[in-house]
Amino acid sequence: MKAVVCKAQSRLAVEDVPKPAAGPGQVVLKVRACGICGSDLHALEFGFADGGVGTRYALSSVGNIMGHEFCGEVAEVGPGVDGFKPGDRVTSLPFLNCGECAQCRAGNAAQCRVFRVIGSANTPGAYAEYVRCAAPYLLKLPAQVNFRQGALIEPLSVALGGVNRGRLNPDTPCLVMGAGPIGLGVLMWLRARRIRNVVVSEPSASRAELARRTEPLAVVNPRQQNPAETLTQLAGGPPEVVFECVGAKGTLAQATSLAAAGGQVVVIGYCMVPDEINPHECINKNLTLDFSAGYTRADFETTIEALANGRLNAELMITDRVSLDEVPAMFERLHQPNGPAKVMIEMRD
Ligand SMILES: [Zn+2]
Ligand SMILES: [Zn+2]
């Protein structure tokens, strides 16, 4: 099958590799769509092989295939799998258990001794025609959810995990820092929950335009305007909840300075290098810092339901669609400022 393989730090190549087979408790999906995640860019740059500062969630190894935001059709069903058959439209949490150890046989997939994250380290992901998944992590897609939306369930669930941590009521002044796919996802969930007082800060004009289509109170360029002041003018107070969705060095300190006294900073941006905050300012303001990692199966279910009901206009974050062959060149483009928001790899028949 065709796949995009990690060859060396910052280098991808499209190659022909063996198609995966379904072991006990596993299925093989024919991939229909897979999003390119910012963490894949980070993994290839900083978390490659044994170098860099990547974690097991971000690392990628020589010869591996990335891609953890995917959906597709069941192509092959392994022994002992109930409830799925070839042709079913599904997505999966990007987790893989072995299906064979004592915990797996007892139905405790999360306790598997060789638990892995699909598309990281040595576990092949969905920048490929086929990907191996584990039945306990599969979810069916309702007919109203197309494949493009199906591959957005993972990043939308990351955003939902962050929003669920926010101490929110309908009038809470909120600031979303960054309108990349995660910031846009946070914005969509805040809108879906009828949180009214939301300002977005985003320096890129094209991303700011995407944020505007989700109708926050305002989108400001933080290099020209103080977003906390804008929020104070429009909503009567500085941000009580700041969602940090940038993950670059320095943005955490900005988030803590922009937050209101007694406020909360929810950190979703995945900064790969050590960063500084000013503890003195945080203490004086009595701030809560909340770091949000990932999601649960329930978050995936909530996201699928919201997509099926049309409560999230998620596809607007997709700025580019590419084939597998176009992925290496797209990684180059994604490094440039003002690059695309969400890039979707789509498989055509
Ligand atoms: Zn991701
Ligand atoms: Zn196991």
Q: Please, could you describe this protein's structure?
A:
This protein starts with a strand and ends with a strand. The protein is built from eleven helices and 17 strands. The chain has two domains: 2-140 and 313-346, Medium-chain alcohol dehydrogenases, catalytic domain (Quinone Oxidoreductase, Chain A, domain 1, Alpha-Beta Complex), CATH 3.90.180.10; 157-291, NAD(P)-binding Rossmann-like Domain (Rossmann fold). By secondary structure, the chain is α/β, with parallel strands linked by helices. One zinc ion binds at residues 37, 39, 68-69, 154-155.
Give the H and E element order: EEEHEEEHEEEHHEHEHEHEHEHEHEHE
Radius of gyration, taken over Cα atoms and rounded to an integer in Å: 20 Å
Overall average residue pLDDT: 92
Choose one word for the global shape.
globular
Tally of strands: 17
> What count of structural domains?
2
Question: CATH class of the largest domain, please?
Answer: Alpha Beta
| Terminus-to-terminus distance | 13 Å
List the ligand species. Answer: zinc ion
Q: Sketch the major β-sheet.
A: 7 strands, mixed
Helical/strand content category: alpha/beta
CATH architecture of the largest domain: Alpha-Beta Complex
Strand coverage percent = 15-25%
> What fraction, in percent, of the residue positions are helical?
25-40%
